[in-house]
Amino acid sequence: MPEIPEMQALAERLDAALAGRALERYEPLGFTGLKTAEPPADDLVGRTLVGVGRRGKYDVMDFGDGLRVAFHLSQGGRLDLEEPPKATKPRGSVVRWVFSARGENGPVGLLFREHGSQRKAGWWVLGPGDDGPLAALGPDVYDPAFAELMAHGESNRRLHTWLRDQHVVAGIGRGYADDALNRAGISPFASLSGLDAGARSRLLEAIRTVMADALVTERQRTGALSDAKLGDRFLVHRRAGQPCPRCGENLERVSYESYEIVYCARCQTGGRVLADRRLSRLLR
Predict the structure, then answer these.
(1) pLDDT at 283
(2) Which of 31, 69, 165, 167 is the most buried (most CB within 10 A)?
(3) DSSP-assigned letter for residue 272
(4) Each residue of 71-90: pLDDT tens digit?
(5) Mean pLDDT over each residue of the chain, to the nearest integer
């Protein structure tokens, strides 16, 4: 699932390509894509896009006067810039926004589609004073409020779970949780309440550094965000059995029904291999 680096770089690319253009029309291509009824999406037509920003894992298109479109890519959502706009309906299409010409450049289409069989990606039209799904998000990774929480919070939940809770901190998913915990040398099963001040500071720095490094890489991506698979950007996540980037020992995994946690036993758990439910089932 795209996280802060991917969504931030995407917002920057979309802002550069679309800001200052008027929305000429939108074409709903999926029945479940639009998550709101008020204000109506028709209110967007004819309005000029002021800019594109990010909040957590959401990108937000600002049409002025408090009218915005927020979209979430979920696991398989992707965006394609079309110059000129197309009339096709690729598999998994959610919506196509068509923007006017700008200067010497012709009109541009923005196709929102979703790879795979899940239909969880969506978009929201938000009016003044209504933040919709954004209202429930925790502070951003770079927000001082998150640093304060890291320094003084007393959660007993497992860190990997806690960091992925969007009500706690917005924008971290499984991928960068794996990478940041490895960089900090902290077990994914440790709790915030069990960390001393040094470990808390080290984890905060690791989270921000991992995100910043990934953003540098992500800004080099050409086009929008259309690759079906985005797993190559991680150093630890999805790399069980490969060498740890810190010590070279083979990375371990803890498998769940729909995802896995990857970690280094030497660097993060004092040499202890965490119980793997998948392996436990096979040994029964």
Answers:
(1) 34
(2) 69
(3) P
(4) 999 878 899 999 999 999 99
(5) 92
The residue among 38, 72, 40 whose CA lies nearest residue 55 is: 72
Nearest to 53 by CA among 99, 111, 24, 10: 10
Judged by phi (left if over 0) then psi (alpha if -120 to 50, else beta), residue 179 lies in alpha
Cα–Cα distance for residue pair 253/269, rounded to 1 Å: 12
In the chain, the amino acid numbered 272 is R
What integer pLDDT is reported at residue 117 of this predicted model?
Answer: 64
Q: Is the N-terminal amide bond of 39 cis, ω within 30° of 0?
A: yes
Closest CA to 7 of 79, 104, 95: 79
- Give me the residues paired with residue 153 across strands: none
pTM for the whole structure = 0.91
Helical residues (DSSP H) of the chain, grouped into ranges: 4-18, 144-152, 159-164, 174-184, 197-218, 265-268, 277-283
pLDDT at 199: 98
How many Å apart are CA 105 and CA 253, to the nearest integer? 49
Q: Is the dihedral of CA 12, 17, 22, 26 positive or negative?
A: negative
Q: Tell me, what amino acid is at 283?
A: L
Where the chain has pLDDT below 50, the residues are 280-284
The backbone region for 198, taken as left when phi is positive above 0, alpha when psi lies in -120 to 50, beta otherwise, is alpha
Distance CA 91, CA 187 (A): 40
Alpha carbon distances (Å) from 4 to 30, 130, 176, 209, 249: 26, 22, 9, 12, 28
Closest alpha carbon to 119 in 95, 99, 135, 150: 95
